[in-house]
Amino acid sequence: MPVTIDGPGAPPPAARIRFTYSVCVGALLSLIISLGFAYCRLALATAGMSSDYITAGAVAVFFLLTAFLNPLIKLAYPPWGLRRAELAVVYIMLIIASTIPTWGFSANLIPMLPAVYYFATAENSWAEHIHPHIHRWMVVDDHDAVTYFFEGLPEGASIPWAAWTTPLLAWLTFIVAIYLMMIALMVLVRRQWVDHERLLFPLVQLPLQMIEEGRPAERFGPFLRNPRMWLGFAIPFCLLSTYGLNFYFPIVPRVELYTVIVPFPDLGALEVLLSFTVLGLAYFLSFNLAASLWVFHLLARLQMGVQYAVGYRLTGEIEHFMEGTLMLAYQGMGAMLALIVFGIWTSRGHLSEVAGKVWRPRESEVQDREEILSYRAAVLILVVCGAYATGWLTLSGVPLWITVIFLLMAFGIFLFMARLIAESGLGFIRPQMTAQPIIINFFGTSTVTPSGMFSLAMTFSWAGNIRILLMASAINGMKLAERVGALKRPLFWAMVVAIAVSLLSSVWLVIALAYEHGGINLELRTFQGMSKAPANFYLIKYLNPVSLLEPFDVMFPRLLLTAVGGAVMTALIWAHHHFLWWPVHYIGFAVSATNMTSASWFSIFLGSLLKATIIKYGGIAMYRSLQPLFVGFILGQIFCAAFWLVIDLMTGATGNTVPVFSHHF
């Protein structure tokens, strides 16, 4: 029987949500995300459909569902048709599932587990410097299992699952605890971001328009019947299809949407990319927020150019998942930390009310019936799962107090990224620095210990290349659910089902693919680049020990730049909140030097310029009437990549990358 919601505040009978039915549909479609798109990325080296906050694979699958499958189902057997709120539940499951299979976790972690042994050579000295400090339950160390993973199984052999049982059990229970903590934390801050601060949530605009319902007699909603949307859809679909056609028929020229300009030869180059997904999203941003993203990027490029021109650089090399120069990375880290502190400070009133509801529920006037978890349940999840994650990392070799600080730092960065996505809607972004180098550099390699450094290096699997994050999908999902009346307790379990389906199926897929084809024959970045990242990162730290101010000439400038970045961010926040005329938002300063901002800035600038022109000459009415055009831009580029991915899957071709964002990513 389908689950419905009754009691105070329940929707009318016609709008009741069949959660069981919705979850079954969402789980089935989540398999396409976790198996289909992951296979295409890892085996065929196609576009990353589950690699970024835009969750392109989820958008493409959901478009097929709303535009074709659901109308056909309603026509053939109306009771099986999905209603608006039920479609929202399915979409939420899809964006949750998108955060796991490739660059979110599974494709990062699985090759790491045997790589530390397979790629060990006499030249790199991994056996001497790394292997003695590894806790064996964390990795795969069986010789045959390791060799066959990267070189393929001999004929007639089967996958050696026994060698994988212990590390998989350890890592899967750990990451489930991390994911539950992410959802619980978003439950605690949802009302602050949605009701009090009224963040924009631009990434919710597309699914909201896709599930908009028309009159009862109409088979298709207003979104699908809008000619402006189809015009916006057609432009990127046709232009970017030249990439796919050129791959199969080289005589067909590609329409190049990317170039590099050098306005000042001594100060470096600027990337100029027309990305229709970014252009469409930029249309929904406020002017000062859009300006902060491109203005601060141009200033960052100017700062980098001056650095190069005068020959100044910090001692040391760019570390894993740092962006820009070392100077800008530490400057951005300080800005990010200041923004995290500011966010916690501005939420203090709401968090105080939450605490009152948790500790004195009968005395508190705060209601949490509209949340997917009660506040007490959310806090309990944070405590229990946080204790498990802390114990896990401590057993892996990280000192207890370092573990606590690392988890707080990592979740602070996650919170910053989720807030950034909720406010700006940037589908393609990542932080300028991650928690691992911050902890090791500032607390010292000897304090963290060799085993602790390797364990922290292995956390790059879920806290390294933060281009997609379950926390961001969770808060976007809650916002969407609130808009359609689906923000109910069963939604939490729908998210859990999506996590389970995507996690288990994607882990199986990565292992099965490697043993069938040999990991060294699959995607280079995943099976040879990312798999070596923990060992390479560890070895650099192990051979070049540091602490807070030792060596002084290395660490003091980094500490100083962190403080400068925090001070500048504090000043920008103060100006934004005290001067009505202040032209730019502060949030862009913290991500000004990332490679993805470098590829996004021009499309953001162009989108805000078009928006300003439309409002100036056509007013708000024209701005609203043209929203479907820009939504069509987003959908057209995403669906074009998905369309050619299916063609590649049918032909078995590899390396045909029709970009969801940029062919560089």
Which structural traits does this protein have?
665 residues; mainly alpha; two-stranded antiparallel ribbon; disordered N terminus
How would you describe the overall organization of this protein?
The chain has 665 residues and is an all-alpha fold. The protein has 26 helices and two strands. A two-stranded antiparallel sheet has the order 1-2. β1 and β2 form a beta hairpin. α7 runs antiparallel to α14. 51% of the residues are buried. The N terminus is likely disordered.
Describe the secondary structure blueprint for this structure.
Elements: H1 19-44, H2 56-76, H3 84-97, H4 106-118, H5 126-129, H6 143-151, H7 161-196, H8 205-210, H9 227-248, E1 258-261, E2 270-273, H10 276-282, H11 287-310, H12 326-346, H13 348-359, H14 375-395, H15 400-424, H16 435-443, H17 445-448, H18 450-458, H19 460-463, H20 470-484, H21 490-517, H22 524-529, H23 533-543, H24 552-578, H25 595-625, H26 627-651
Antiparallel strand pairs: 1-2
* Helix segment tally: 26
Give a count of the beta strands, DSSP E runs of length 2 or more. 2
Low-confidence stretches: 1-14
Q: Helix/strand-derived class?
A: mainly alpha
Beta percentage is under 5%
| Major sheet: arrangement of strands | 1-2
Which percent bin holds the helix content? 55-70%
- Gyration radius, to the nearest Å? 25 Å
Provide mean pLDDT, rounded.
91
- Largest sheet features: 2 strands, antiparallel
Summary of the model, kept short:
The protein is built from 26 helices and two strands. The chain has helices at 19-44, 56-76, 84-97, 106-118, 126-129, 143-151, 161-196, 205-210, 227-248, 276-282, 287-310, 326-346, 348-359, 375-395, 400-424, 435-443, 445-448, 450-458, 460-463, 470-484, 490-517, 524-529, 533-543, 552-578, 595-625, 627-651, and strands spanning 258-261, 270-273.
